[in-house]
## 1
Amino acid sequence: MMEASAVFGEYVVVKALENGVTIIGLTRGKDTKFHHSEKLDKGEIMIAQFTEHTSALKIRGRAQVFTKHGMVECGD
Amino acid sequence: MMEASAVFGEYVVVKALENGVTIIGLTRGKDTKFHHSEKLDKGEIMIAQFTEHTSALKIRGRAQVFTKHGMVECGD
Amino acid sequence: MMEASAVFGEYVVVKALENGVTIIGLTRGKDTKFHHSEKLDKGEIMIAQFTEHTSALKIRGRAQVFTKHGMVECGD
Amino acid sequence: MMEASAVFGEYVVVKALENGVTIIGLTRGKDTKFHHSEKLDKGEIMIAQFTEHTSALKIRGRAQVFTKHGMVECGD
Amino acid sequence: MMEASAVFGEYVVVKALENGVTIIGLTRGKDTKFHHSEKLDKGEIMIAQFTEHTSALKIRGRAQVFTKHGMVECGD
Amino acid sequence: MMEASAVFGEYVVVKALENGVTIIGLTRGKDTKFHHSEKLDKGEIMIAQFTEHTSALKIRGRAQVFTKHGMVECGD
Amino acid sequence: MMEASAVFGEYVVVKALENGVTIIGLTRGKDTKFHHSEKLDKGEIMIAQFTEHTSALKIRGRAQVFTKHGMVECGD
Amino acid sequence: MMEASAVFGEYVVVKALENGVTIIGLTRGKDTKFHHSEKLDKGEIMIAQFTEHTSALKIRGRAQVFTKHGMVECGD
Amino acid sequence: MMEASAVFGEYVVVKALENGVTIIGLTRGKDTKFHHSEKLDKGEIMIAQFTEHTSALKIRGRAQVFTKHGMVECGD
Amino acid sequence: MMEASAVFGEYVVVKALENGVTIIGLTRGKDTKFHHSEKLDKGEIMIAQFTEHTSALKIRGRAQVFTKHGMVECGD
Amino acid sequence: MMEASAVFGEYVVVKALENGVTIIGLTRGKDTKFHHSEKLDKGEIMIAQFTEHTSALKIRGRAQVFTKHGMVECGD
Amino acid sequence: MMEASAVFGEYVVVKALENGVTIIGLTRGKDTKFHHSEKLDKGEIMIAQFTEHTSALKIRGRAQVFTKHGMVECGD
C-alpha cells in the first residue's frame, strides 16, 4: 500500500486551448516508456499529480501549463 | 487504515458557471481509468481532494478552478 | 483510533446567504457516494474539516465559501 | 490517551453579537450527528478547537467568527 | 506522563476590563462539560493554554482576548 | 525524565510597574489549582515558561506582559 | 518499493522552441551513462522529475528550461 | 544523558546597567524554588538558556533584557 | 538502496556559452578523484545533482552556472 | 556519543574592544558553577556555542556581543 | 553507508580570477590535517560540499567565494 | 559513525586582511582546550564548520568574519 502522505503531493494544471491536446505520462523506473495518455478538448482542464508510476509528463498542442515554476504556454 | 495525516492534504475548488460541469476522477495506480464523475449545476461548488484512489482530475464545462497555482478558467 | 495530529487539519468555512444551502460530504475510498448532508439557513455558518470519511464537499445554494485558495461565491 | 501534540491544534474564535448564539459540534466519524451544543449570550466569546470527537462546527445567530481564512460575520 | 513537546503549545491572553470576568474551561473528550472556571478582576491578565483536559474556553464579561486570529473584544 | 526538546519552549516576559505584582502558576492536569506564586517589586522582570506542571498564568498588579500576541498592559 | 514521499519531489519544465529538442537522462550511481532520451517538437512541453535512476539532465536545442534557479534559455 | 538537540535552544541576553544586577534561576518541576543566582556588575552581559533545571528567570536591578519578544528595560 | 528522499535534492544548472564546456564530478569519500566528466556544446544545458558519489563539481569553459548563491559566470 | 545534529546549533560572536575581555562558561546541570573562562585581547573574536556542558555565558570588559536578539555592547 | 539526506547539503561556489587558485579540504575529526587540494585556473568554477571527511575549506589566490553569508573576495 | 545530517551544518567564513591571522579551534566537551590552529596569510579565506570536536573558534589578527549575525571586523 502506498503511503498516504504521498497522496497529496505536487500537481500541475493543464488547460487546453484547442481540441486534441495530449498529456502523456512516462513511467518512473528503469525503463522509461509511455504509461498513459489523455486527450483534452478545447477549454478542458486536467489536474495531474506525479505518482509512483509517472515521473514525467509530455504535453502536445496549444495549452497553458501551470507549474510551481510559473505558467508556460504550450504549442505556440 | 489510511494514515490520518493524509486526510487533510491538497484540495482544489471548482465553481460551475453553467449547468452540467463534469469533474472526473482518474485512478491512481498502474492502470489509469475513470474512477468517479460528478456533475455540477450552475453556481454549485465542489471542493475535492486527491485521495489514495484519485491522482488526476479532468474538468469539462464552464467553470472556475482554484488551485495552488492560481485560478484557471475552464471551458471558455 | 485516529491519530490526534489529524484532528486539527484543513477546514473550510461556508456562510449561507439564503435558506436551504446544502453541504454534501462525499465518501473517501473506492466508492464515492453521499456520506452526509447538512442544511444551512440564511446567515448560518458551517466550519467543516475533511475527515477520514469525507474527501470532497459539494455545496449548493447562495453562499460564501472560504478556502485556502480564497473566497468563492457559490450559487450566483 | 490522546497524543499531546494534538492538544494545541487549530482553534476558531466566536464572538456573540446577540443573545442565544448557538455553536453546535458535529461528530467526527462514520455517523455525523450532533455532539454538543453551546449557547453564548451577547458579548460572550467561545474559543473552540476541533477534537477527536468534533470535526465540524455549525454556528447560528449574530456573531463574528474568526478563522484562519479571516473573519466571517454570522447571522446577518 | 504527558509528552513534553506539548507543554509549550498554543495559548491565549485574556485581560479583564471589569471585575468578575469569567474564563470557563470545557472538557476535551466524549462529554463536553465544565472543567474549571477562573475569575479575573479588572486589570488582571490570564494566559491560558489548551491542555489535554481543556479543548474550549468560554469567556464572559468585559475583556480583551488576544489570539492567533487577532484581538477580540469580549462583553461589549 | 522530561524530554529536552521541551526545555526551550514558549515563554512570556512580565515587567512589574509597581511593587507586589503577583504571577500565579496554575496546575496542568485534571485539577486546576494554584501551583506557585511569585511576587515582583517595581522594575523587576520575570521570564516564565509553561512547564509540565504549569498550564496557565494569572497576573495581578500594574505590569507589562510580553507574549507572542504582543504586549498587554496589566492592572490599569 | 520506492518511498512515496519521493514521488512528488523536484521537477523542471522544458519547452521546446524548435523541433528536435533532446532531453537526456543520465544515470544516478557509480557509473554515469545515458539512461533515456526524449525528443520534443516545437511547442511541446516536458515536465521531468529527478528519479532514483536519473540524477542529471542534459538538454540540446532551442528551448526554455524552467528550474528553481529561474528560467534559462537553451540553445541560442 | 540530555538530548543534544536541546543544547542550543532559547536564550535571553541580560546587560547590567548598574552594579549588583541579580539573575535568579527558578527550578523547573513540582517545587518552584531558587536554583541559582548570579550577580552582574555594570556593563557585564549574561547570556542564559532555559535548561532542564531552570524554567523561569527573575531579574533585579537596572538592566536591559533582550528576548524574543523584544528588549525590556529592567529596574527603572 | 539509496533513500528516495535524497533523489530530489539540490541541483545546479550549467549553460554552455561555447563548445567544449566541461563538467567534472569529483568523488565523495576518503579519496577525492575524478568520477565523471561531461562535455557541453554551445547552448546546451546540464542540470546536475549532487549524489552519493559526487560531492564536488568543477566547471571549465565559458558558461553560466546557476546555484542557490545566484548565477556565476564561468570562464571569462 | 552526542548527537551530531546538535553540533551546529546556536552560537554567539564576541569581539573584544579592549585587552582582557573575559568570557566565562557556566555549567549546565544541577550545580551552576564556572566551567571555563577565556581571555580575549583587543580586536580578537570568539565564536562560541552553547554545549552540553555550557548553558550560560558571562562576559566582562568592553566588547560587542552578536546574538540572535541583535548586537549588545558590553562593558561601557 | 552514509545517509542519503546528507548528500544534498550545504555547498559553496568558488570562481578563480587567476591561475593556480587552491582549494584545500581539511579533515573532519580528531586530527585536523590536509585532506585534498584542488587547483583552479582562471575562470574555472568549483562547487564544493562539506562532507563526512571535509569540515573546513581553505582558499588561496584571487577568487570569488559564494557562501550563504554572501560573496567574499579572496586574495586581493 | 557521525550522522550525515550533521555534515552540512553551520559554517563561518574568515577572510584574512594581513599575514598571520590565526583561527584556533577549542574542544567541545568537559575540558576546553586548544584543539587545532590554522594560519591564514593576507587574502586567504577559511570556511570552517563547528564539528563534534570543535565548539568554539577564536580568531586573532586583521580579518573579516562572516557569520549568521552579520560580518564582524577582527583585529582593528
Note: Chain A has one domain: 4-74.
## 2
Amino acid sequence: MVIEVSSSPKPVYLDHVELTGGLWQERQATNRSRTIPAIHHQLETTGRLDAWRMDPNRERPKHRSVIYMFWDSDTGKWLEAVAYSLHTHPDPELEKQADGIISLIEKAQKPDGYLNTWFGNLEPENRWRNLRDWHEMYNAGHLIEGAVAYYKATGKRTILDVLSRFADHIDSRFGPGDGQKRGYPGHPELELALVKLYRETGDARYLNLSKYFIDERGQEPNYFDIESRERGEDPADFWAQTYRYCQAHKPIREQTEATGHAVRACYLYAGIADVALETQDQELVEVSRRLWDDLTSHQMYITGGLGPAHSNEGFTFAYDLPNETAYAETCAAISLAFCAHRMFHLDPNGRYIDVMERALYNNVLSGASYEGDHFFYANPLTSYPNVNPYEHWSGITSDRHYRRQAWYFCPCCPPNWARIVASIGGYFYSTTADRLYVHLYNRNQADFAFGGKAVRLEQQTDYPWDGTVQFSVGAETPVEFELALRIPGWCRSFTLEVNGVPQPITPVNGYAVIARRWENGDRVKLVLDMPVERVAPHPEIREDAGHIALQRGPVVYCLEEVDNGPRLANIAIPSESQLQASFDADLFGGVSIITGDAVRAEPSSWPGELYQPLSVVQYSRSPFRFKAIPYYLWANREPGEMRVWIREW
Amino acid sequence: MVIEVSSSPKPVYLDHVELTGGLWQERQATNRSRTIPAIHHQLETTGRLDAWRMDPNRERPKHRSVIYMFWDSDTGKWLEAVAYSLHTHPDPELEKQADGIISLIEKAQKPDGYLNTWFGNLEPENRWRNLRDWHEMYNAGHLIEGAVAYYKATGKRTILDVLSRFADHIDSRFGPGDGQKRGYPGHPELELALVKLYRETGDARYLNLSKYFIDERGQEPNYFDIESRERGEDPADFWAQTYRYCQAHKPIREQTEATGHAVRACYLYAGIADVALETQDQELVEVSRRLWDDLTSHQMYITGGLGPAHSNEGFTFAYDLPNETAYAETCAAISLAFCAHRMFHLDPNGRYIDVMERALYNNVLSGASYEGDHFFYANPLTSYPNVNPYEHWSGITSDRHYRRQAWYFCPCCPPNWARIVASIGGYFYSTTADRLYVHLYNRNQADFAFGGKAVRLEQQTDYPWDGTVQFSVGAETPVEFELALRIPGWCRSFTLEVNGVPQPITPVNGYAVIARRWENGDRVKLVLDMPVERVAPHPEIREDAGHIALQRGPVVYCLEEVDNGPRLANIAIPSESQLQASFDADLFGGVSIITGDAVRAEPSSWPGELYQPLSVVQYSRSPFRFKAIPYYLWANREPGEMRVWIREW
C-alpha cells in the first residue's frame, strides 16, 4: 500500500489542549510541583549546571567517563520539560530559572558554533572523534528539542539561535562532501531533533542532514570502523561486540528486525518516520512499518516495555520477554510512544495509538513514583527480594528490594518522564483538513479550526477508570468535519450517541468516524465497555506460559505483596473466578483496583528437603480474595514482591 | 550430638572395587578411550604441556591473564584421572605418557621447592603476592592430589616427592611464625589436598598447615586486604566486591551460609570436613554440618547443581534457583559429591550419600557428552534457543543452541569429570571394623577384610534403571560383619532377603543393617521400589511454582524438543496421567525413559498481537504422549529446547 503522505494528519500541539482533571492532569501537576524542581536540584547538585558555567575551579570530575559526556542531554531534556510546562502553565519564576540556564548554554558555545561541555573544554582535541560512544550528537539532539520547545513556549529566540548555530556547525562537518566526515550518531536522537528544527525554522538543510544520517547509517565501509582505526583502536574491540547494538550493522533500508539498545532503536525509528513523512519516501515508510511490526509483534512487554536485557539495555530475540530481569527502561517505553505517535501520522491507524496508550499507562507512568521525585530506570514485571534487573549478585545486601531512586549515575529517565508528562496534551489529537482524530481520553478542552472556523471540544470522563467519555462541541457557527474517535484495541464493544441518538458505526482503522455539520452544544457520548480482561500471552513467550495478566481498559494490573502476602508465584486465579473492578478513592488519589477469588497453592507443611515426591506433599489450595493495583503504581507502598503475570488455575 | 569421629567409617579405595558392567563401567570405559586422550590432546595443543617444558621459544601467550595462571591445575587433574584409571586398568602406554609429563614437572621445580609454570618463570617477582586471585595454591592442591593418586596407583615416588617438596616450601612460607605470611588460598582446594598428602605420608605438618589455612581464613585484619595494599591496590577495588565470593568474609567457625563461588565453597567445605575428621575438632564438625545444611536445604538444584549465577559462578540467596540461566557448573556438582562423601565419614548418615547420588547421576554425568569428548561447564535445567547461561545478549548468532564444547578457555570441568568418573569405585563402599557400608549400586565386585578375613562382595543389578540389587558373598571362611545397605532417600518401600528369607529391617540413618556371620555363597536380594515420581519443588522456589519434575530412582528426567516438539513451556502433565518407565535398549546403549500422557496447551491459532484477551483465544489442549530422557543425556542428539520442570495440569 502506498501511503498518501501528503494528506497525512498533523498532531495538534499541546498548547491547544488544556487538561481539566483526571489522571493526566494530576500527573502533570505532580510533574510541575515535584518532578521538574527535583530534577533541577539534581542538575545543580551533581555539577551538570556547573559544567555549563565552565568555571575552571568547579570542573566536573577529572576521571574520564562516558557518562559525563552526555550530561548536556540532561539539561536539554529538563529545558524541554520546562518549556512544555510553561506553555500550558506559565510560571515566571521557572521561566527565569530556565533563562538563566539558557544564558549559560549561550556562553558555552564556541565561536564556530560547537557546543558541548565535555569536549568543548576538557578534550577539545577529541571533538567528533568517537561518534559511536561519545554522545556529542545525542546531546545536540536533546538540546535542539529543548530549544525548539522553549522557543515555541516563550517566543524567545536565544536558545533556538544557539542550537541552530550548533546544527549548522554539525551540518558543515558531516555529509558526503569533500572534507566532510561521513559519520552519524552512535546514539540516535539528533535525527528526530533535526526534523523538529526544520519544521520550526523551515530550513531544509536540517531535514537533509537528518536524512543523510539515516541513509549513511550502516553503510560499508562502516564509519564506526573507520573512526576506530583513526583513534588507533581495533574496531573488533568494541565493547558491545556488534553494531546491532547501535542499529548500524547494515543499512537502514535493509533492516528488518529491531536490534540492540532499545532507546537508540526507537529514537532512530522515530527519526526515520519523521524523515519518511517529510520527504514522502515510500521506501522509508515501509522500513518504518517493518521495524515497527517486529518491535511490537515480537519484542514488547504487555506494559509497553522494550528490551529484556541489561547487558545491552535492549533487545535479544523474538519472544524473549523474561519478567523478573526485564530491563524495560523507562526511556525505552517513552521512545516507543514517540515512535507510535509518528507511525500514526505516516499511516493513520489506531493500532499505533493502541501501543502508545499501552506504553503511556503502564511502563511510562511507572517510571516515576506517585510523589514524583523517585524514578525507575528498569521496569521489571516481577519483583522479588534480592533481585534487581541490573544484576544478580550474591553481594546484594543493602536493600533487598528493587525500588525507585531519587537519581541515577546515568539519569536519562527522570527528565524524559518529565518531558513526556508535561507534553501529554500534544498526544491527544490530530487533524487533517476535514477530520479531527481523538486518540486519548481524559478530561480536557481543546481548540481546533476547520475551514477557518473555530471549534472547541470538551471531554468529560473518568478514563482510564471508566469507559464513558462525553464530548461537547463549542462552535460559534456550525462547522463541518469528521470526528474520528479512537476505539481502542482493548475494547471489544462500545456504543456511540450523538445528542442522544445511537450511532451504529463500524470503526475503520481503529476510529469511529462521525461526519457531521457540528453545532454549538452538540453532545457525543462514547461508552467503551471496560470489563476486567484476563490477557493471554503469545504461545511463544515461554516465560508467561500458563499465566495470565489482568488488564482493564489500557491499564495493566499487578499483585503486590502488601496486598496479597508473600510468595506471589504460588497464587493462581481459577478460570471460573469472577473478577471485579472497583474504585478505591483512598488509594493514590483514587484508582480502580481489581479483586477476585484466587487460590494460594502451597503445602500446609513441607517435610524437609528441597524436593519431595508430589504424593507426600499436602497441598492446600487456600482460597482468598486477591487485590490487584495498576502496574504503574507498584513500589509506592511497603516494599515486597510484585507480579504482573499470574498463574491460571 | 557429639560425633564419635574416632570410630568413623573409612572409604574403601577404588582399587578394591572392580566395575563389571552397567552405567558406571560404560562411563569409565568412555573416559579411558575418549575423555582422557581428548584432554591430553588439549593440554598439548593449548600449550599447557609446553608451559612445563619452559622452552623460552615456546612460551605461553605474553598478555597476562589469570586463566594462564591456573593452567597447572589442568595437568594436575589429568594426572589424577590417569592415576585412577591406571590403578584399575593398567595401560603401559598411558603410564609412559604420564611419566613423561611428571618428568617435565620435576624439571620445572625450583631449587627451593617452588613449582608454578607462570610465576616460576614469567613473573618470579610476583610469587605469593596475590593469593586472592592468582591460584598458586589452587594449582598446588591439584598437583598434590594428582601426585598422591599417581603414587598410590604406580608406587612411583617421583611426583609425590616433588609435590611434598612444594608443600614443604608452602609450609615454610605460610603460617603464624615470624617472617611467615598469614595467607591462605583464594581458591580453596589445597586444604583437602594437604590432608590427602598427610594421609599418604603421615607427615602431620601437612595436616597442620591445612588446619591453619582453615582457621586463618576470614580473620581480621583480612589477609586479602593486607596483600592488596602491599601490591599498591585498594582492597575496595576487588572485582567481586565481597569476600563472600571466596568465603573469606568472616572466620570459618562463624559462617552459617554457603556463599560466593560454588566450587571454591565446596572444595573448602570438603577440606574443613577432612580436617574436622582428622583432628576430631567437634566445632569444625558442627560448622561442616551447618554449611552442608544451608547448601542442600536452600541452594541446590534437583540435579545436584549448585550456583545459580554466572556473575560469581556461585550462590545468590536461599531458594534462588532459576532454571534457564542456571550456572550449575559441572565442577560444582563434582565438589558437592566430594563434600557429601566426606560428610558421611564425619556423620555416617545416608542423607549425605543421597545428595552425592543426586549429583553424580544428574549434574555430574551431564558434564560430558555420551561420546565423552565434549563438555558442559554450566548445566542449566531449561534450554531455549539463543539462551546460554553465560550471557544473555543480542549478539548471539553463531549457534542458537547451548551445547557441550570440546574445550574451554577456562577448562576446569573436563579433567574434573575425568577424575571423578575414573575414581567412582572409591565412592561405593565404606567400612568400620565390623561394618560394610554399601553406598552405591552398580554391577561390581569388591574385596574387603574383617578381622583379618577376606570377603568378596559381588553386586548384580541394572541400577539405576532397575531397583533390584543382588549380592553374593565370597568368603573362604565365615566372616562376621554388618552389611549396611543404603536405602536411598528417593525410595519409599523396599524388600530385603537373605538367601531367600525376607528380612523385615527398618533402616537406621538411611541404611538397612544385616548383622550376620556371612558364609561363602550367601545371597542378599534388595528390591528398591522405583516408580516414576512426580517431584514437587519447595514452595519458596518461585521459578518452579506450578511445575513438577520427573524422577525415577536417582535419575532426574527432562523433555527434549527432538522427542516432544518445540515450545516445551506449553506442555503440561495432567495430575491423573499414568507415567510409565520403559527400557529403551537403542538409546545411548540402553537407558530407561519415561512416557505418559501430556497436553500441549496452545492456541490453535493466534489472532495477531502479542497479548490477547483470554476469551478470544481458542486454546486447544492437544493430548500427546510425551517422552522424557535422563537429564544427564540431554544435548546429545538434534539441538533443541530442553526442560526439567514441567507444568502440572
Note: Residues 22-45 of chain A form the longest helix (24 residues).
